[in-house]
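Regression test case RT-17, inverse folding.

Input:
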């Protein structure tokens, strides 16, 4: 099986203010075969700083995500969860999501077959992009 590029994000919910609006948008990306969710873990930190984590299928409190297929649940390990938990303030939560960019599979395969290597990459935060766009528009 050819593997497309794989990415992850840690999405914080300060004060556990999670509403579930992201679930339909994520499901839409899956339905359109743009991504394949490899794993999704919810992480919480209580007021004393104790960390709890739940795989998607273990958490009845987020029914919005009930129909999200995580094809490789269990891919994320304790070390990944501990790393993500470092960014969470007590009394807050986060979602740790790892996915495969199916839309880029052919491009990635072409790069691999031409012996290309990725020298650097990253995700540019929305706030930085918006700032740059606003500065360009201002002249």
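Golden output:
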């Amino acid at each position: 099986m050819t593997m497309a590029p794989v990415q992850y994000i840690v999405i914080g919910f300060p004060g556990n203010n999670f509403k579930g609006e992201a679930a339909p948008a994520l499901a839409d990306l899956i339905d359109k075969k743009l991504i394949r969710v490899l794993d999704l873990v919810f992480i919480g930190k209580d007021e004393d700083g104790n960390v709890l984590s739940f795989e998607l299928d273990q958490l009845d409190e987020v029914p919005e995500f009930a129909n999200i297929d995580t094809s490789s649940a269990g891919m994320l390990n304790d070390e990944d969860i501990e790393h993500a938990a470092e960014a969470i303030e007590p009394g807050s939560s986060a979602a740790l999501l790892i996915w495969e960019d199916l839309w880029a599979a052919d491009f990635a395969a072409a790069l691999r077959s031409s012996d290309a290597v990725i020298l650097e990459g990253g995700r540019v935060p929305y706030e930085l992009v918006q700032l740059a766009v606003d500065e360009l528009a201002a002249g």
